[in-house]
Amino acid sequence: MSSHRLVTRERLSEVRYEIRGELARRALELEAQGRKLIKLNIGNPGAFGFRAPEHLQQAIADNLPNTDPYTHQQGLPSVRGTISAHYKQRGTPNATPERVFVGNGVSELIDISLRALLNPGDEVLIPSPDYPLWTAATILNDGKAVHYDCRPENGFLPDPVQVKSLVTTRTRALVIINPNNPSGAVYPRELLEQLVAIAVRHDLLLMADEIYDGITYDGAAFQPLAPLAGDHPCLSFSGLSKVHRACGWRVGWAVLSGEAMRLGDYHHAMDLLGALRLCANVPGQYAVPAALSGPDTITPLCLEGGRLYETRRAVIDACAASEHLNLVAPAGALYAFPEVTGLAAEGFDDHRFALELMESEDVLVVPGSSFNVRYRNHFRVTLLPEAAMMREVFRRIDALLGRYADAAARRHAAVA
């Protein structure tokens, strides 16, 4: 009998996804023991009592008899027509149904789009912090993730000078996540124009992750990237998961814009890869026209008095009142990315903190280093719970950080 063990792919050792990783597995063990955890690791609206809007649910119900067959690999033609019209209305050049790809969430489309682009060793410029799927998908498609810094002291906005300095002859794409996960930064138009100029000068595909495009606060304005890119190749991603609170339906889309001759065979490559997986989830696609042409159900949640706004305010207030936390207030998306400071930050390890917070305070957060940053004094929480629950969460966080600070003070006293 052979004693050979099954060996996994080596590049998997370079991949991190702590959002659903070791800590989440430990959470399941604690819950099996009867512990009740507050799980703030995933931006999953349905887990916090949100429902997809009724007019989206009705659209699926009305069309359910039509959903048994496979559809075209790029998506239902009528749905692609609706998406292209929506993007054309907001200024995306060359937005036609043939340029729209519907996928099983944006996650699948990120993987397909990078697989269609990269040869071994090709480089992709990705923000740090990032949504870690971008780095993972680049690595798993034999590329090299090159991170550009979005520093807390700069409001988590990138420095175009640094971005430009990282471009090499192997760089193929520039990823922009706006509004940003995990930081909540919303990029101003002038900054986006500078990033587009870099992509144009160095012939880079722009990849715009805009899944949170309708979620902004306190007057922050979302600027889509494709209209600024004009004839330059740009791939814009969005879907139903966040703005329309329908994560489990797994409906995302990517819109390829730019002058046709400059796209080469990239469109064909994405179409081929889409065909290999046959098609995306069909029932959920029927909700897209209702989502894009129906009533705006997300803005009221983001205005003063709305649930997301008030939970965000609870986080901002808690961090302002804490001796141990600093926060760049999120201008968009569904997350906050606090920084641990002062005595509590001495010797701080974000993974150890997240584990101890769960074990001692029944709260699950994501360590900041999971988002491909070099520092280890941040963590991410989702803004989806009710404000009262979030205030309780930060009371528990502050209690643990207070114990860290007390221990540091005792170390100082012993040395003195």
Q: What is the succession of H and E elements?
A: HEHHEHEHEHEHEHEEHHHHHEEEHEEEH
Q: What number of structural domains do the residues give?
A: 2
What are the low-pLDDT stretches, counting only 5+ consecutive residues below 50? none
Distance between the termini: 65 Å
CATH C-level category of the largest domain: Alpha Beta
- Say how many strands there are: 14
The proportion of residues forming helix, as a percent range, comes to 25-40%
Quickly give the structural class. Answer: alpha/beta
Strand order of the largest sheet: 2-8-7-6-5-3-4
CATH superfamily descriptor of the largest domain: Type I PLP-dependent aspartate aminotransferase-like (Major domain)
> Whole-number radius of gyration?
22 Å
Bulk shape = globular
CATH architecture of the largest domain: 3-Layer(aba) Sandwich
Beta-strand proportion: 5-15%
Provide a count of the helices. 15
CATH fold label of the largest domain: Aspartate Aminotransferase, domain 2
Provide an overview of this structure.
With 416 residues, this protein is of the alpha/beta class. The chain folds into 2 domains: 10-51 and 300-415, Aspartate Aminotransferase, domain 1; 54-293, Aspartate Aminotransferase, domain 2. Helix content is 39%, strand content 13%. It has helices at residues 22-32, 54-63, 77-89, 105-117, 132-140, 160-165, 189-202, 226-229, 266-276, 282-285, 288-293, 299-302, 307-321, 350-361, 387-415, and strands at 38-39, 100-103, 123-128, 144-149, 171-177, 205-209, 234-239, 252-257, 325-326, 335-336, 339-340, 363-364, 366-367, 379-382. Strands 2-8-7-6-5-3-4 form a 7-stranded mixed sheet, with helices on both faces. A 3-stranded antiparallel sheet has the order 10-14-13. It is globular, with a radius of gyration of 22 Å. It starts with 21 loop residues before the first helix and ends with a helix. The mean pLDDT is 93.
